[in-house]
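Session log. Operator J.P. requested a structure for one protein chain; no other inputs attached. Running the standard single-chain path with token output.
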Amino acid sequence: MSEHLLFLTGKLAEKQLRGILEKMQPEFSYTVHQIGVKVAALMTTDMIQRRLKETFGANRIIIPGRCRGDVEALSKELDVQVERGPEELKDLPMYFGKEAHHYDLSRYNVKIFAEIVDAPRISIDEILQRAAYYRNNGADVIDIGCLPNTDFPHMEESIKALKQEGFTVSIDSLNDDDLLRGGKAGADYLLSLHEKTLWIADEVGAIPILIPEQHEDLSSLDRAIALMQGKNQPFIVDPILDPIHFGFTQSIVRYHEVRKKHPAIEIMMGVGNITELTHADTSGMNALLLGICSELNINQILATEVSRHACRAVKEADKARRIMLAAKEQGMLPKHIDSSLMAVHETSPFLNTKDEIRELAGMITDPSYRIQTSVEGVHIFNRDGLHTATDPFDLYPKLGVENDGGHAFYLGVELARAEIAWQLGKRYNQDQALTWGCAADSAEQTVDLHTFKPAGTTLQKK
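Structure written below.
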């Protein structure tokens, strides 16, 4: 027997909900019930409990995604499973489709080494603060970067302090003395050794990261690998990723050659030569680089956040490694798994066409302004009419708020958000901040509906 679902909605969204369900041609049967509220998003679980007199034989009840209240308590009260649907009706097919699957992003198989590049020049307290920041953003190992011709008298004390706080630590230098000191102080990894400096690995317990003695010299890397394998000691190999136009493509080929020749060894990729040295959004770069890592089974990366444009690189790499693992395990493309790396654009930015917005505007009977976007631009409407523009300044003379500072301020903020969303191809939801994924400090930047809104700005929610 097929499942029967009950969809609860408001007056303004009822027609659209019915139309979407008809087009979906779902395998389940359903009932659409309007519970006497105009705007569906203003529905609460307490309101549903008071107003819903029957459940129409439903096995499940789907309520608006923005409905506030205790869903679990409502399920117990009605003796029917209640669940929030998507926040936007146009996302209903995705909610019930393949893309609605929830993927496990709690796991990853790529360790992130996050480098503190100027450790010799900052205090131990600052090193600990940066380490905590990196760990909070997903780093597994804190890499202490040494500087050429720069004394580092507090190296040992810094490593000891990090270890006491539970950090895994690597020391990063091409100076033999720095690496030896770091290893003896308790560092877990040494970046980087080559075949002529492998003797350092015999002096300490740290795991070495091996690089070619001369750039691009894979034969020297092979010899170093053979030496470590002969000693039955752990190691990681880094063939070195080069910047674009300075050997980038050939360096990717090197990684492929090393993996093909040594299918079981551990490999590291230093992604900073791309994220730091390319003026483009790092979220996409991290997605691509972690995709390469996934295909080549590269299980360590070295990330940096030196340039201001790369200030979210560790956070983005953390999200990318989880997405790539989920996609790999499911045998699927890395699409529709998580949107955190889509900071600027979205897959479905415009929920309604201009004609659909015009139809909705014709149903409005109150003076409250609603704002939506479509491919054509920004739309603002109430019972007195619909106005469309691509520049919010063109709308201001039509809104009648010249003598209402609070109302004008509110509409100015919302129209500015709508304009930005329209320009970039992002989704705009009235009364909610735009979401920027990993590019912002918080992926959840929604504004509480009870925050300041002047009179006459009630929202159109679905």
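Operator note: The two ends are 30 Å apart (CA to CA).
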